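USER: Study each token:
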Amino acid sequence: MRPVWYLPLSEELGKALVSGVSLDSEQPCRYEMAAILYLLQVPKLTERPQSPLEMERIFARLLAHPSDLLASVLAESYNRDAFAAGLLAASSLGIGLIDQKAVTLRQYVHGDGSWNFDFARTYARASSTVNRDHLRSDGQTVRLSDPQYRLVETIRANPGDSIETQAYAGAGKTFVLREVVSILHDRRCLFLADVESKLWPVKKQFSHQIHALTFAKLSSLILARGNPRLEEKIRLAANRRFSDESVAERLNISSVGNLSGPQIVRALCPAINKFCLSNDTEISAQHLPNALQASLSLAQQQLLVALAKQLWSAMIDLDRQDLAIRVTGWHRLKQIALMGLNIPDSYQVVVIDEGHDLISPLVEILDRSPQVVITLGDQFQNLQGRYVSHAAKIRHREMTLSLRAGPQLVNYLNPLIDAFPGARVEPFIGNAEKETVIAEYRAEQFPPEPSAILVADEWGVFDWLIRNRYQGKGAAVAYSVDLGTFLEDCLGLYSGLAMPQHFKLAGFRSWSELRTRMAWNHAFLRVEDWLEKVGTKFGVSGLYNGAELDELGRGTPSRHLIVTVASSKNFELPRVAISEDIYYFDNLRSKQEMSQKLALLYTAITRCSGKIFFPATHHEWMNCILLARH
């Protein structure tokens, strides 16, 4: 019988105790002690038929007792035969045990120590879905899903071939990457990821066999070529504080049309960023923001392009340290691509996590570098709608089976995948041994259970904070969401008392200008209505409530947590609610706009590992989105 719920006791410890290992020698934690005591009582509990939920509630009540009492009672009542009988009876009642890693992680209890009744849904149990044995170089055997196994064996059999793998969310990309690295243990290997946190597991496991770098540190490595003085200059440039006024003054940028020097600098930075994300060799008018192009004459546009080129040259000049503008890893990678530099040939293999977030200049560098390149990514998680594929000569593989999501999500995800512009991939397959619980909630209300509420952007966060004030739900903004000055800047711009500094607002000179751009966004309109009726009278200071650093990744939340989809990308969340603002759109006629919208929905939905709440308007909005393609 497949377990309905699980006790916080490892299968290894259970087998050891049945075989006669002394309980004292194992020193179980309080949760394991409670589980052992419970198993001793299971035969008695079965004398009166009870539902699995009631059986689980009995165990939850047992956890309320202090550790010293549990230890005392266990010392007096423990009996190996009674334990073995309880273990056998538990199996027939749908009560299972877990692995030692899950015991250590303690996701079966909430932060206050109370039992997590959703744990059974989130526990990724080894099963027939993970049914292929892979022998590591150290002689250890691990189990893989069939798509994972085929990829690993392809790499083993073709050591000289570059491979790009499309792996759906929850397919086990990070785990497979570690197996790939173990295969390549005898080769000089470079492991790349976008953020430092994704490097930690690899560094810990393969510290002597692999060099792990972020994309930004790779750019420093290539540019500095081992020169400590240049490395320091690159580091200092990456930590500069941005100042429009200072940059305009130092580069002698004066007004153009009705734009002042600082406003020009503020407008040119997005243009330079757009250029750096492309494979273009020169900055042109097409890189200027659309609103700016519409408001300027052709001659004024050309003047701004000339100023953008001047600013770009000053930014990447390693001998120039007087600018107050920050130079990121993206800028440096574009610089490297334009210079024709490669990854040092001291590396034989490059392995990349989250390959869907590679930008065009880095793909260009990888494709012309001499190394074997192995990339795992999910093109449907590129929130900018600009997924860049490798050269055609690279082998392409797919990992279509999600170990995280049950088949219940297939009908929600495959329509998104089918609608994705230019995508030609196999359908998403759910794990038949996982159940993803799907529910609805009224779009203007909070979900009935504490959830990670995923929103599109800062407007979605602001909208939910207002709702939280009226409905008193005690919701908090996840620590990973950086609102900065957004709330205060909205109020300042609306009231006309201050010019905004937040990057989402800094390009607008008035609220009416912002409203012209954002009138399609219902979350924005609700914020505007609140600012008029409440915000201008009482301010925004009482709206914000922040969550602790690790609260989002701690398991099933004990309160509602508001988080943007972009900030949740690296999380697997047991209970998720999809905010209606994720569906809102202005124009989906271009390939990039449609890709961005579908990627936002796909990424939000695939964060779920247990229960997901959709707004009651989901199907209505999806029809609107899919019809917008035509």
In short: DSSP finds 26 helices and 16 strands in the chain. The two ends are 49 Å apart (CA to CA).
